[in-house]
Amino acid sequence: MPYKDIGELPKAVQSHLPKHAQEIYLAAFNHSWDEYRHPEDRRDDASQEQTAHKVAWAAVKHKYEKDESTGNWVPI
């Protein structure tokens, strides 16, 4: 289901991503939730929710990367 605000995002997302990255995640998740509503619109057998999370992470990774030494997500 779509998220209303970043406070509703999964705890793993909230605890690991900076606020701006959370906003990107939220927008991408909600958009892809609608876009991949129908199973035939998805590439594999993933559920609508799984697909939306994959898209959201991909969107975050366009602007942020994980610093392996600290584990923090930082702007690229």
- Going by CATH, the homologous superfamily would be ChaB
Mean pLDDT: 94
Distance between the terminal alpha carbons, to the nearest Å? 29 Å
Going by helix content, strand content and strand pairing, the class is mainly alpha
Radius of gyration: 13 Å
Estimate the helix proportion, in percent. Answer: 40-55%
Shape: globular
Biggest pleated-sheet summary: 2 strands, antiparallel
Examine the coordinates and then state which fold CATH places here, giving the name of the CATH topology.
Rna Polymerase Sigma Factor, Chain: A
Any low-confidence stretches, pLDDT <50, length ≥5?
Answer: none
Query: Which strand order does the major sheet show?
Result: 1-2
Q: Which second-level CATH architecture applies? A: Orthogonal Bundle
Number of separate helices = 3
How much β-strand is present in the residues?
5-15%
Q: Could you give the order of the helices and strands?
A: HHHEE
Highest-level CATH class = Mainly Alpha
* Topology, number of strands: 2
Number of domains: 1
What does this structure look like?
There is one protein chain. The protein has 76 residues and is mostly helical. It has helices at residues 11-16, 19-35, 48-63; strands at residues 64-66, 73-75. The chain has a single domain (11-75), classed as ChaB (Rna Polymerase Sigma Factor, Chain: A), CATH 1.10.1740.70. The protein has a two-stranded antiparallel sheet.
Short recap of the structure:
The protein contains three helices and two strands; from the N terminus they run αααββ. The termini are far apart. 51% of the residues lie in helices and 8% in strands.
